[in-house]
Design goal:
Rossmann fold, 3 domains, globular, alpha/beta, 17 strands, four-stranded antiparallel beta sheet, five-stranded parallel beta sheet
Length: 467
């Protein structure tokens, strides 16, 4: 079986055939205007899993991820916090790296920034104007969509469909409502850079086109990002890049990561319906957070749920026990056990099926159970396979916040929860409360929800921390 990737550009899963070596991946990164939230974590964990999968399957990878370190929103945040836009970008970029390290997201090979590539961005815009794809109006420069016949091929928004979500009222000098900014004249008091068209700063889309070209070349293998970037951001990237170079495709494969939702809406900074990673990682084991994210396929929407995080937390003790502490476990290349090799083959089949992380997680847990069932001769080899699976999934099993409860303790707590549920069903409220209060006295807090009861261990300061 070969790796297949669902490509937004074609609308179907395609066999992965890289342009060359190394495989070149670009991911649209954060605008560092606040602490990253769980939606950001989902994108970057999924892209990290894609990278780990490619490396596991034998590909050499070069991974680039940008930071949009100057933007309307970073400027607004700077005004709110009384610091410069540069200080805002630095502060929240550092927050990103701290959270991603806890989630075991491997560092990209390069992190270009808009301010760091400003001269190249201006040169890119100049070339588009020279080739007739850009036009100047005062201090602004616009991309002429009508000059690029393939516009809409990624999103399917060709012709009038390209007007959906676009301002219909023409800004001064703009020729077509679909045209988008390559360069914006500076507003009073805003950070700006000198250009042939006067002081200003880039449009959003030209930034990524330039950073891709400067770090990875004119054509790349995989361009990642969240699904809300398909239009207009990624559509506009394609138009700019292919207009400049005359080469297509700009990116061969476009896998897009689904949204994380909170109460039915996309989680975002602008809606203030987000949960920061800092908050989540203070209360949940990083391995549980990463496991929770990977248990949904990257293309599917993911509803944020503390119950889901708690369930992932409860599965970790058994996984850690199977993973073991032994140092003399053989390498995967040394494995001869048929049962171990079969498990690894099944795991790889899930990876090759469009980065099927939930399927891979399922095989991993099956392998963890097999460690306990395997014969003495096979156990170390099955454990070696399990460790490889954990590595590919990127689960930071050593990064737990505290010692986990033993399997026997977990079984006892869950038995008492079932007993309490039966007592409540029989309306024996006093006894049910006695079970709850007894567990609380031992530091175990019960939380009742629509999907049942979850339990957490309370720390010495009275805060809950899921085991």
């Amino acid at each position: 079986m070969s790796l297949r990737i669902f490509n937004t550009l074609s609308g179907r899963a395609e066999v992965f055939e890289p342009l060359g070596t190394p495989v070149r991946i670009y991911c649209c990164g954060m605008t560092p205007k606040f602490h990253p939230h769980i939606g950001h974590a989902r994108l970057f964990v999924d892209v990290d899993f894609m990278r780990r999968t490619l490396e596991h399957l034998g590909y050499e990878v070069r991974h680039v991820q940008n930071f949009t370190d100057i933007d309307d929103k970073t400027i607004l945040r700077a005004e709110e916090e009384g610091i410069t836009a540069e200080e805002v970008a630095r502060k929240y970029t550092e927050s990103y790296f701290a959270s991603m390290a806890q989630l075991a997201v491997k560092p990209a090979d390069e992190y270009p920034t808009v301010t760091g590539y400003m001269e190249r961005i201006i040169q890119f815009v100049e070339r588009l104007v020279e080739k007739g794809f850009g036009y100047v109006v005062g201090g602004d420069v616009w991309f002429s969509v009508s000059r690029f016949p393939d516009y809409g091929k990624l999103s399917g928004r060709a012709g009038d469909a390209g007007l959906i979500g676009v301002r219909k009222d023409l800004e001064p000098g703009k020729r077509d409502p679909r045209d988008f900014a390559l360069w914006k004249a500076a507003k009073p008091g805003e950070p700006s850079w000198r250009s042939p068209w006067g002081p200003g700063r880039p449009g959003w889309h030209i930034e990524c086109s330039t950073m891709v070209r400067e770090t990875l070349g004119d054509q790349i293998d995989i361009h990642c990002g969240a699904e809300d970037l398909i239009f207009p951001h990624h559509e506009n990237e394609i138009a700019q890049s292919e207009a400049l170079t005359g080469l297509e495709p700009f990116a061969k494969y476009w896998p897009h990561v689904g949204w994380v939702t909170a109460e039915g809406e996309k989680m975002s900074h602008s809606l203030w319906n987000f949960v920061t990673l800092q908050d989540v990682l203070e209360r949940f084991d990083p391995a549980a957070v990463r496991l929770f994210l990977l248990q949904t396929h990257y293309r599917s929407p993911l509803a944020f749920s503390e119950e889901g995080l708690a369930a992932s937390s409860r599965s970790l003790p058994a996984l850690r026990a199977a993973y073991g502490q032994e140092e003399n476990v053989p390498g995967v290349a040394e494995i001869s056990s048929e049962s171990a090799l079969h498990l690894l083959q099944r795991f790889d089949a899930q990876l090759e099926d469009d980065f099927n992380s939930p399927g891979a997680v399922g095989v991993m847990f099956e392998t963890a159970h097999e460690v306990n069932r395997a014969s003495d001769a096979d156990r170390d080899q099955v454990r070696a396979v399990l460790r490889r699976m954990v590595e590919v999934l990127g689960l930071p099993l050593s990064a737990r916040r505290s010692e986990p409860a033993s399997t026997e303790t977990i079984l006892l707590i869950e038995f008492l929860i079932e007993l309490r549920a039966e007592l409540r069903q029989e309306k024996q409220w006093v006894l049910a409360d006695k079970v709850r209060d007894g567990l609380k006295a031992l530091g175990i807090v019960l939380k009742d929800g629509p999907q049942g009861t979850i339990w957490e261990r309370e720390d010495r300061e009275g805060r809950s921390a899921v085991i």
